[in-house]
Give the backbone structure.
Amino acid sequence: MKAVITDSGHFSREVEVAPISALPGAFHLRFSSQLRSARDPDAWQRNFDLTLQRSELIRLKELLEAAL
């Protein structure tokens, strides 16, 4: 599952969350960005990756909800 969370026309940021089939209950979270003024404006650059257990992903969700 992916979603663009920032899009200013010149810069975009996308986040992707995917289950890891080899590790039941684990998820891969990836942040990527795209800069339209870059040499390759259609390329997405990986910014940050992490692996979280379901419980950790729920804690992150709760943190975000509390902050909002």
In short: The mean pLDDT is 96.
